[in-house]
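Cross-posting from the chemistry board since nobody answered there.

I work mostly on the small-molecule side, so proteins are not my area. We synthesized adenosine-5'-diphosphate and want a rough idea of how it might sit in this target. Sequence and SMILES are below. Is it possible to get a predicted 3D structure of the two together?
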Amino acid sequence: MDDLLIIKNLYKSFHKGKYILEDINISISSGQCFCLLGASGSGKSTLAKCILRLIPYEGYIYFNNIPINTIEDYPKHVSFIPQDPMSSINPNFKLIDAISEPIKIMSLAFNKNDIIKLIKDIGIKEELLDKKVKTLSGGERQRVAITRAIITKPKLIIADEPTSSVDAIHKNTISELFLKIKRNSTLFVITHDINFSKKICDKIGIMYKGKIVEIGDKANIFLNPLHPFTKELLDNTLNCQKEHV
Ligand SMILES: Nc1ncnc2c1ncn2[C@@H]1O[C@H](COP(=O)(O)OP(=O)(O)O)[C@@H](O)[C@H]1O
Ligand SMILES: [Mg+2]
């Protein structure tokens, strides 16, 4: 079995008796990009927090077939791109310090030339390295958050709504970036942006009120949606595109 991440019979409640997540079952193969689509409040970020071991849950999550709560160096293998790029970055840090923070925390080898090569690849100009993060544009901050996530060479990257804070032009470059990242890591991407998911994902799960109501390969879901909520999501996206023509 070459599934990198397996979520099995996962339940989450914050208050006794009320489940926010119910019987979640997802498996993601190594190298795959999985997109979790769903309306706001359906439980997507809560599931990401479970996978990141930030909150307790009932059920099972396996990474490389090992329960995640038993993996000592789990943070080395799994990194996170938050919805708000600034939520985990000190705005007064210089870019070079913000980018190298994760490798310092994990005591990994640090080489400035590697960082320069990496940021060029991500599309950040080298001359920004000495600028404070708070002076950067929204698109640049998003790239910094992406760089922080990939610099530790994680096996799995979890991204929560990576296109929500960028404009339409940047959305395209973000999807190109994700396609690049996918060459080296498995991706778990939360989004309500169907067009973005179409560009980057291999497998899709549709979340509705805390349950995965449909899951499968991209082509299957887009060509033959079965659940009414999936159909509604696809119809809404089509209508939005028509309005913008
Ligand atoms: N810490 C918490 N305590 C209580 N309820 C929470 C907490 N975090 C999230 N929720 C609730 O869980 C539900 C799902 O939230 P969330 O996972 O953020 O949804 P999404 O990311 O899909 O928008 C919401 O009803 C939200 O109010
Ligand atoms: Mg969310």
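Reply from a structural biologist on the board:
Welcome over. Reading the output above for you: The chain is about 35% helix and 25% strand. The mean pLDDT is 92. Happy to explain the token format if needed.
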